[in-house]
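Figure 6 in text form: structure in, sequence out.
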């Protein structure tokens, strides 16, 4: 009855409620006509009454809190009843909380997306075997999913994957739900959880609200977890069998797989993801590709006397005019592309080498500036040496008088 009333308050029709709960329209009509009444409880449960507010708060925060630990806590506070009384009450409260959560997270179109990472193991990528991770974002209403494989799970990669998902969906949901991933949430000294400052700036820029799901509540993030489960059992075995050897190949393959998955009907709705996405997409906030949050990794680097900057075991040349100066390197976390800046001045684009490759990448035009600078400096040194080697003539003061016409004929001769 309470569940029917909750759905009614959310605007569901009597017929839709009956279908959702698996009962007849007549039953729902009778439910809604009745006044809410308290359930009968055994008299022995009175021993628990004083502790129910504490139990309610704990179960509301963590529905699957351990009964034994909870029993020990209230015994220490003076509870004199049996474990069976506590178990019966906790079971009742847990059912109500999880049922409410399940209803709450059957979200309306455009409201929510859920995000998580999947550890995809090690792959032969570009001749090495790095760990590969799958970023997964699932829209709450349509269940349409975006997947991006990466070799990193840091903050820059997380935000860049978000923007790829927004571009894929051509829109942004009102809120995005995360678990306790360190790149999204931090716990304060007081024990509360707050968004990472960079995620908060990103969310503010794009206009969505970051939410954190409660631990041990599978219903709250179940949509993305089901997507990850399907990815693990259906896509990854196919990709392993095919033998993808680059991230680009892996990501191209998963995009084709997602197109096929979108066409398959969802058993609980008798619609496929594309059909439901047609309802959801207009409710998303428009994603403007002309205004993109800068998710790149930023590094301040010093140019050596040889005209090189060093990063992750590789060295890159720069023009001789930047010798001894500090430059800013901004790296795209999802590709090998990067940009080099001197203050706000764009110096050049760079294609980054693999980490630890030990490469020394020198551009011919940079070498020419080095040679020109060396010649210029060498010419200056030569002039200085020549001046230092020129003999000095010592003359009588009367010789200078001759130059100005003040000397005698003898001296003039």
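Output sequence:
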């Amino acid at each position: 009855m309470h569940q029917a009333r909750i759905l009614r308050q959310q605007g569901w029709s009597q017929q839709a409620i009956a279908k959702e709960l698996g009962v007849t329209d007549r039953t729902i009509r009778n439910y809604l006509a009745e006044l809410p009444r308290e359930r009968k409880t055994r008299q022995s449960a009175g021993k628990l009454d004083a502790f129910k507010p504490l139990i309610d708060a704990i179960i509301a925060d963590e529905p699957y809190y351990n009964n034994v630990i909870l029993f020990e806590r209230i015994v220490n506070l003076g509870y004199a009843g049996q474990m069976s009384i506590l178990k019966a009450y906790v079971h009742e409260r847990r059912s109500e909380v999880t049922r409410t959560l399940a209803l709450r997270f059957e979200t309306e179109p455009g409201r929510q997306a859920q995000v998580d990472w999947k550890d995809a193991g090690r792959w032969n990528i570009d001749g090495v075997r790095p760990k590969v991770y799958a970023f997964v974002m699932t829209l709450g209403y349509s269940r349409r999913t975006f997947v991006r494989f990466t070799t990193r799970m840091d903050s820059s990669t997380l935000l860049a994957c978000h923007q790829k998902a927004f571009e894929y969906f051509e829109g942004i949901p009102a809120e995005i739900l995360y678990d306790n991933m360190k790149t999204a949430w931090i716990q304060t000294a007081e024990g509360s959880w707050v968004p990472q400052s960079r995620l908060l700036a990103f969310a503010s820029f794009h206009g969505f609200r970051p939410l954190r799901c409660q631990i041990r509540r599978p219903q709250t993030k179940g949509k993305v977890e089901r997507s990850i489960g399907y990815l693990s059992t259906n896509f990854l075995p196919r990709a392993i069998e095919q033998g993808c050897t680059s991230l680009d190949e892996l990501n191209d393959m998963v995009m084709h797989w997602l197109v096929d998955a979108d066409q398959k009907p969802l058993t609980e709705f008798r619609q496929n993801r594309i059909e439901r996405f047609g309802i959801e997409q207009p409710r998303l906030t428009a994603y403007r590709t002309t205004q993109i949050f800068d998710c790149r990794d930023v590094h301040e680097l010093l140019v050596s006397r040889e005209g090189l900057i060093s990063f992750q075991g590789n060295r890159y040349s720069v023009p001789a005019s930047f010798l001894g100066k500090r430059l800013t390197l901004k790296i795209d976390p999802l590709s090998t592309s990067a940009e080099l800046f001197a203050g706000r001045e764009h110096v050049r684009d760079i294609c980054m080498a693999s980490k630890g490759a030990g490469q020394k990448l020198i551009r011919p035009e940079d070498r020419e500036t080095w040679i020109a600078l060396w010649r210029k400096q060498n010419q200056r040194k030569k002039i200085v040496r020549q001046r230092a080697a020129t003999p000095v003539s010592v003359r009588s003061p009367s010789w200078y008088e001759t130059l100005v016409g003040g000397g005698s004929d003898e001296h003039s001769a």
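Caption detail: The chain has four domains: 1-37, 44-104, 112-283, 296-413.
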